[in-house]
């Protein structure tokens, strides 16, 4: 069970959480396995930045979602240098919805 699955099991009323990327095995397109931080390749595409600013927002879809009920989406984000983000649904859900709205037409 992943840390996100455990978190949402322990907090069934929550829909999102923010955390640092986890270190573990990642399989690339050639099926080679390397040990990297979670979302490493997405973060590298953002250019030079401080690795300490990397965060993952884990968003759990609604239980009545038609195709993916209670699916956990890891969303990589970069914090500003002096920014802190409170780990509450009231703060995180608007961030998630803004990201989804911005990227809705890009698929």
Q: How are the strands of the largest sheet arranged?
A: 1-4-5
Number of helices: 3
* Helical fraction: 25-40%
| Domain module count | 1
Sequence of secondary-structure elements? HEEEHEEH
Mean pLDDT: 90
Structural class: alpha+beta
Largest sheet: 3 strands, antiparallel
Low-confidence stretches: none
Give the N-to-C terminal Cα separation: 30 Å
Name the beta content range.
25-35%
What does this 3D model show about the protein?
Helix content is 26%, strand content 26%. The chain has 107 residues and is α+β, with helices and mostly antiparallel strands. The protein has a three-stranded antiparallel beta sheet with strand order 1-4-5. A two-stranded antiparallel sheet has the order 2-3. The longest helix has 15 residues, at 89-103. The chain is globular, with a radius of gyration of 15 Å. The model has no long low-confidence stretch (mean pLDDT 90).
Q: Summary?
A:
Helices cover 26% and strands 26% of the residues.
Question: Any chance you could write out the topology, listing elements then pairs?
Answer:
Layout: H1 3-10, E1 16-19, E2 23-27, E3 33-37, H2 40-44, E4 54-60, E5 72-78, H3 89-103
Antiparallel strand pairs: 1-4, 2-3, 4-5
What distinguishing features does this structure have?
107 residues; alpha+beta; three-stranded antiparallel sheet
């Amino acid at each position: 069970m992943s840390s996100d699955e455990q978190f949402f099991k322990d907090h069934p009323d929550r829909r999102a959480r923010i955390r640092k990327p986890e270190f573990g095995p990642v399989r690339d397109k050639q099926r080679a396995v390397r040990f990297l931080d979670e979302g490493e390749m997405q973060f590298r595409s953002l250019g030079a930045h401080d690795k300490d600013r990397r965060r993952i927002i884990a968003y759990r879809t609604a239980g009545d979602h038609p195709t993916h009920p209670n699916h956990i989406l890891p969303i990589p984000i970069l914090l500003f240098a002096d920014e802190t983000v409170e780990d509450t649904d009231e703060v995180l859900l608007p961030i998630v919805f803004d990201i989804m709205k911005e990227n809705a037409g890009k698929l």
